[in-house]
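User: Thanks for the earlier help. One more: ABC transporter ATP-binding protein. Can you show the sequence and predicted structure together?

Assistant: Of course, both are below.
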Amino acid sequence: MLLQMDNITKKYGEFSANRGIDFSLRAGEVHAIVGENGAGKTTLMRILYGMEQPTSGTIRLNGKEVSFASPLDAIQGGVGMVHQHFMLFPTFTIAENIVIGNEPGSGAKFDRKQAVKIVEGLCDQYGMKVDPRAVVSSSAPGVQQRVEILKVLYQGAEIIILDEPTGVLTPLEVQELLDAIKQLTKQGKSFILISHKLNEVMDVADRITVLRDGAVTGVVEKGNTDAHQLSRLMVGRELMELDRKPITPGEKVLEVANVSIRGTKGKPVLDEVNLEVRAGEVVGIAGISGNGQSELLQVISGLAQPDSGRIAVSGKDVTGKSTREIREHGLAHIPEDRYVWGANRTATVMDTGLMGHQRRLQKGGFLNLKEIRSLVSGWVQKFSIKTGSLETSTQYLSGGNLQKLIVARELEQGTPFLIAAEPTRGVDIGAMETIHGELLKRREAGTGILLVSSELTEILKLSDRVLVMFEGRIAGELSAKEATEEKLGMLMAGGTL
Ligand SMILES: Nc1ncnc2c1ncn2[C@@H]1O[C@H](COP(=O)(O)OP(=O)(O)OP(=O)(O)O)[C@@H](O)[C@H]1O
């Protein structure tokens, strides 16, 4: 056995994030770890990667006991990890990012040409394509991820840990990643894959370990299981079908008229965008990321200003208004990137629950802490948010639990208009069911929802109408009845129906 983790326990105070976990990995194997948010997947991998020390338990590589005091130690032992959030230097080139820490050249002189050569060699060896001279910040997420993988390969990794690698990728990039994993295992590399996406797990994994509440609930060979059994092992119950009741849309809660943003390279970022959302309907926006969706959400929510055009929320012109003013006028916003817009990582769960809504929750200039406390603890229950207490700092929440907290806060504002951008990114399948159900409840209660998602299944499940964005324009609109993955895919790629 290449890797053997035996009886791993990790305690944080009284709380056990890992309880007596056994985990093993064969050479050339892809071993997936699945489980609910907060089940302890990332913790187990942080232990393997030397970022955390286990409270008890042993790790053996090729039969020899090892103890990694730091990621540097782990890298030297042949273990590399690609995190949920990329850790690259955005202003450096791809080649610089890959060789950093072990740069070619003598003394202080960095040999750029040699670095490019090294990266070209790696690309050839492992069958992956990147442009070594491109700057990371202008590379697509799929490319940045390849850079991370090439970087750990350059560092000599035999075991590569991928923590929810497909969350930010387009469907095509996901396929490329899965192909790259298969290719690399043929060359003897081994992967540990943390994922909530059971179809991807069933595609690429050889074995699957299911964790629940810090303990193993099953280890299965792929051939002996299916997505149904896995989801039952994960959440301990069957998932339910969504019930989307027919509605009659009401008055306009969002109107975007002829909105444009000029780009830096001649091409507009947003090009005469027109759309509306009415009370009680979900309008989905599909598109390959980078086609203007982020900018559209930014102008609607006051984070950016349009160069021309008009935006109205609940009938009031809010063009050029601040985020605070627009929020006060009836916008709630589940942001695309929870770490940038959604939360301050040092704030407590309670403060995060309050963020952006202080004015609404105050009386006579004072915050009603008792009311806020009972509100936030209600959300924690409803959305099964795993947290020590309301005073716990959000930096100790697992990724999916932080996402659930932000979703709960925005959904529960009960505003007439809600932006839901990637609302289920990083959440487990049970929580996804809860969030989808709650979004539909808001819709029935009359909230108009603008849903932006890179998951076509999510768009198709929830939307009454679907708009497709391509190169800053609305390239097409389909009703819920007309929309299929094939038609959307066609429009997303710039085609016509
Ligand atoms: N430093 C810490 N102090 C206290 N609790 C922690 C700490 N790190 C993690 N935890 C807790 O340990 C539990 C397991 O977290 P972990 O990140 O391993 O979950 P996960 O299975 O990866 O979840 P997700 O799918 O949401 O990413 C969580 O409840 C988390 O709040």
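User: Great, one quick takeaway?

Assistant: The first strand starts at residue 3 and ends at 12.
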